[in-house]
Amino acid sequence: MILSQAVSEVYIALKSLTKTRDVFFWVILFPVILTMLFIGIFARGGEAVHFTIAVESGDTGWFNSTLNDVLASTGIFEVVFVESGLVELVANGSVDAGIYIPEGASTNISQGVQARIEIYYIAGLQESETAKSSLEAVVNVLSNNISAVGIEVLSSFVPGQLVERLRFLSEPVVVEKRVLEPEA
Q1: Dihedral sign, CA of 156, 158, 159, 162?
Q2: CA atoms in the 13 A half-sphere facing the CB of 147
Q3: CB-CB neighbours of 132 under 10 Å
Q4: Are 53 and 68 in contact (CB under 8 A)?
Q5: pTM
Q6: Per-residue confidence (pLDDT) for residue 35, from 0 to 100
Q7: Residue 139 near residue 61, CB atoms below 8 Å
């Protein structure tokens, strides 16, 4: 008896929805249209992230080749090598971002001197800023690895307390990642 009453009330409610046009629109059509609009705007369709990066390098040493190998191995960068005109390529939107490696970068790093590289991007353009952030992340990881190797080499020449101070200067905060399994 109770089930038949519930079914009849649902039937009456659905029938009243189809009779009044404004209720039908706001209850059924508007949510469908809004959902389709959001899917069209925000859905990426499972596209893989991919950036075109231009590399102009005056350096022929190990740092240049290592950075190029790392960028190629990430799978998100298509690396284009240019002899000149890096700024124009980035400015006209031919590439998402650019990286300039000056002459002597490998030598500077090998001698324990900072090497400065330049990353070019277009401010306000989402693809360019995201490419810049991705490039910065790759360069920071490479820089941290070079720093760790340098400190390990230096640790055989200097006292232990100084090595700890050098570790602090190269990486003041260490973030450890812990992967947790969800509880059942």
Answers
A1: negative
A2: 17
A3: 23
A4: no
A5: 0.65
A6: 92
A7: no
- Let me know how long the chain is: 184
Measured N-to-C along each axis, helices 62-74 and 126-154 cross at an angle, to the nearest 10 degrees, of 130
* Tokens at 115, concatenated: 């090497």
What is the distance between the alpha carbons of residues 148 and 166, in angstroms, rounded to a whole number? 10
pLDDT digits (tens, 9 = 90+) for 106-152: 888 888 788 888 999 888 888 888 988 899 888 888 888 888 888 88
Closest CA to 149 of 106, 109, 107: 109
Let me know if 151 is exposed, middle or buried by CB neighbors in 10 A (0-12, 13-18, 19+): middle
* Bridge partners, 57 (sequence order): 101
Cα–Cα distance for residue pair 139/55, rounded to 1 Å: 13
Evaluate whether 139 touches 109 at the Cβ level (below 8 Å).
no
Token pair of 31, please? 């949510």
Domains and CATH numbers, the chain: 2-42 (no CATH), 51-170 (3.40.1710.10)
